[in-house]
Amino acid sequence: MGSKTTSKPKTNRTKKSKTKSGEDRYEIRLSGSGGQGLILAGVILSEALGIGDKKNVVQSQSYGPEARGGASRADVVVADGEIYYPKTMKLDMLLALTQEACDKYYPDVKEGGILIVDSGMVTQVPTKKYFGLPFTQLAREEIGIVMVANVISLGAIAEFTGIVSKQAIKDAVLARAPKGTEEKNTKALELGFSAARKLKR
Amino acid sequence: MGSKTTSKPKTNRTKKSKTKSGEDRYEIRLSGSGGQGLILAGVILSEALGIGDKKNVVQSQSYGPEARGGASRADVVVADGEIYYPKTMKLDMLLALTQEACDKYYPDVKEGGILIVDSGMVTQVPTKKYFGLPFTQLAREEIGIVMVANVISLGAIAEFTGIVSKQAIKDAVLARAPKGTEEKNTKALELGFSAARKLKR
User: How far apart, in whole angstroms, are the C-alpha atoms of residue B43 and residue B173?
Assistant: First the structure.
């Protein structure tokens, strides 16, 4: 898989602790285009964090003038304590599966925040500090269904950020996998873990 | 279908205007238990409102200590103008598909707000002013799949509240229906329209 990674992280910004600098709030945005399953990915990640890892989570989608372009997004705010303000303010982590989503949402990433892109889709990355994996290509070539690019991404997010436990994300993926697709979804998630682990080295 | 309705609305509280008393904000909660497809229903309703009807919409799920019981919920806030505060405060409309969800969330309904319950599941309704339809039973007996109770509910919500256009909700249901299930989902939605229309008379 290592040969498929198209960028190496320039700094070691992954931390195993769930928040940086002791702040009790972590903001995640999953973005791309409609049809890439990002809202479902947001729901799965939230269920993993909220039900599996027992955090407080608010997961949201907004639709408005700015949302009627091609870009689709799902936001997840997670904290140990209560979440008083449920909207994202400055992202700790952004996943961008398309160039358009990357261009649109990168400005919302806070300094030191983590950017994860689909390296096959996002060719002009606005920073040198990012993680790139070809999620869509991996889904097609390794699993045989493009649709699981979102699940591979969730595996990579778990590995890169350490924000969610692997057991919780596994359980949440399985709980939401349509009957008959459990095996492919599990395989996709594990591919996300391993591809990200190799890239981090 | 008329014979299947188990309660008549005691007052005519449905309005065709999108908000009551000219307020530019409408808060909806879809509630029940996990597995009833309420988050998907919230996503479909939001896409209908935001993409089809061009409203501003924030759709959210919360997971926290209070959410780890059996009750599941999805919240939708819709407005013509900008939504500054995305959390629900006082519900204009509550859908409750289980007794537990009805007991838990009815206190959040504002005075004059609309309560819609699954009359086969919610046997102790905390008010006399409500709409009751046996969504789960209708799904099983008329469509042949229990899983579409959420889509029947969406049809009833459109008919009872007038908050979302029927064309927009049809388009949104079809956009989210898994391949091969389009016909059953359309039938389920139209059953929701007609059952609610009969009950309103």
Answer: 10
The CA distance from A107 to A131, in Å, is 17
d(CA A158, CA B52): 35
pLDDT tens column, A123-146: 999 999 999 999 999 999 999 999
Q: What is the dihedral of CA B98, B2, B14, B133, to 10 degrees?
A: 0
Strand duo A71-79 + B71-79: pairing: unpaired
Mutate to test the interface with A, among B61, B76, B181 (most CBs of A within 10 A): B61
Question: In three state form, how does the secondary structure of A148-188 look?
Answer: HHHHHHHHHHHHHHCCCCHHHHHHHHHHHCCCCCHHHHHHH
Structural fold of domain B23-200: Pyruvate-ferredoxin Oxidoreductase; domain 3 (3.40.920)
Asked if A46 is an interface residue toward chain B (Cβ–Cβ < 8 A), one would say yes
| Stated pTM of the model | 0.86
Neighbours of B70 (CB within 10 A): 11
**Do A63 and B47 meet the contact criterion of CB atoms below 8 Å apart?**
yes
Strands B71-79 and B56-63, sheet pairing: antiparallel
Quick check: A135 and A97 in contact, CB under 8 A? yes
Q: Is the CB of residue A46 less than 8 Å from the CB of residue B61?
A: yes
B84 and chain A in contact, CB less than 8 A: no
Confirm or reject contact between B66 and chain A (CB < 8 A).
no
CA distance A43 to chain B (A): 8
Compare all CA atoms of chain A with the CA of B39 and give the residue at the minimum distance. A43
Which residue from A59, A55, A52 is spatially nearest to A18, judged by alpha carbons?
A55
Could you tell me the residue ranges of all domains in chain B? 23-200
Q: Say if the Cβ atoms of A50 and B43 lie within 8 Å.
A: no
Can you say whether the dihedral through the CA atoms of B195, B75, B121, B19 is positive or negative?
negative
Q: What is the pLDDT of residues A6-33, one digit of tens each?
A: 444 444 444 434 444 345 899 999 999 9
Record: contact B50-A59, CB cut-off 8 A: no
Neighbours of B132 (CB within 10 A): 21
- ipTM comes to 0.82
